[in-house]
Amino acid sequence: MKPSKPVILTGVRANNDIHIGNYFGAILPIVDMAKRRSSDFDINLFIPDLHSFTTPIDHSKLYDSILNNARIYTAAGLPLDNEAIHLYRQSRVPAHSELAWILDCFTGFGEMGRMTQFKDKSHKFLDEIDSKIHLPTSRQKAQDIVHTGISVGLFNYPVLMAADILLYGATYVPVGDDQTQHLEFTRDISERMNRKFGDLFIVPKPVAQQHQFFGNDQGLRIKDLMNPAKKMSKSDDSGKGVIFLGDEPEAAHKKIMSATTDSLGKVQYDRDNQPGISNLLEVLTLVRQDAGKDVSLEQTISEYAGMERYGDFKRIVADEVAEFLANFQARLAAVDDQAIESKLESSEHDMNIVANETLHRVQTAVGLRR
Ligand code: TRP
What we know:
Blueprint: E1 7-11, H1 20-37, E2 42-47, H2 62-75, E3 85-89, H3 95-104, H4 109-113, H5 116-132, H6 139-149, H7 152-155, H8 157-166, E4 170-172, H9 180-197, H10 207-214, H11 249-257, H12 275-290, H13 297-304, H14 310-333, H15 337-365
Parallel strand pairs: 1-2, 1-4, 2-3
Helix pairs in contact: 3-8, 3-15, 8-9, 11-14, 12-14
Bound molecules: tryptophan.
Enzyme class: ligase
Family: Belongs to the class-I aminoacyl-tRNA synthetase family.
Organism: Candidatus Nanosynbacter lyticus
C-alpha cells in the first residue's frame, strides 16, 4: 500500500495534563486541518509514545495517557471513519526505531549538541538538580540523577523525529516553533542520505513553505492566567495559571476569577498594556466558538469594550469556561474506546506496510539487504 497522495504528518504528544492552551492552540487546529485537507492528502497523525520518556516520567501512567491522547483528539472532533486519516502509535510501527538507528549513524554528535531544545531542556534539568541536591549527597545518588535525567534519548530525539517523518515521505509537517530546528535537521539528514545513496527519501518542504501552507497565524497563543506575559504551559509550578482539560469546572471558574489583570479598569484589547484582560477576551472567544457560536475575536472585543468592573467581566468568562469544560468532559466520556482501538489497529496495520517499504529501501541502500 503506497500512499498515492502527498502526506501531511504530525505527532500528537502523549501526556495526561493537556491544558486549554494545547487544546485551542494545537489540537483543534490539527483536527480542523485533518478534516479540511483529507480529500487531497493522506493525513498521518501519530502518537509519539517512544518520545514520551526522553525525560523521566511515571511509567505506570504511560499506557493510559497514550490512549487518552487518541480519546482527546476524538472528543475534539477527529473523524475516526475517515480512511485518509491515519491514527497510530509510533511504538507499534517498529520501523521508526530501526530507521532511527540507521540515521543515528549518519548524524553528527555536534549536530545534535547544537539543537536548542536539547540545550534548553538539559540545562533546565541541571538547574533543577542543583536546586534539589543538598549537600551532602552521595556521589552515587548524584550520578544516578544526572545519568538518568539527561538521557541519550533526549539527545538524539530529533533523529527519531526525522525517522517518523521520512518513513512516510511526508512533505508537510505542521509543528510549533520549538520544533522547526528538528524539521530543518530532517531536511538535512534526508538530503545527506540522498546524496550518498541516491534518491532514498522525499525531503520535507522548507519551514517557510510549511508556514505558507498552514498559515502563519498558527492559532492564538493562550497566556498563563497568573502571568499573562508568558504562554500557558503545563510546567507552571502552581497550576493556578493553567486550565487543564481535566479540571473540575468549579476549580477552573476560581482560576479565572483570580486571573491577573491590571489597574486600568477598562476592558479593552491591548496585548502590551493589558495582557491579562486581552488574554481573557481571547479565551472567551475560543470557548464560544467551541460551543458552536460563530463569533470572532473582534466581535467579543466590541461586545465588552469599555466595561469597567473586571469582576463582572471575569465572571462571564469563568462561567463560559466552566461550561466549556463540562461539555468537553462529557464528550470525552462519551468517546467510544472500542472505535478508537480498532482505528489504531487498522491504521497501524496499514502504516507498517508503508513504513517497512521505506525501511527495506534504506536497508538495501546501506548494504543490509540485496
Ligand atoms: N517532537 C514533537 C513535539 O515535541 C513531536 C513529534 C515527534 C513530531 N515526532 C514528530 C512532530 C514528527 C512532527 C513530526 O511536539
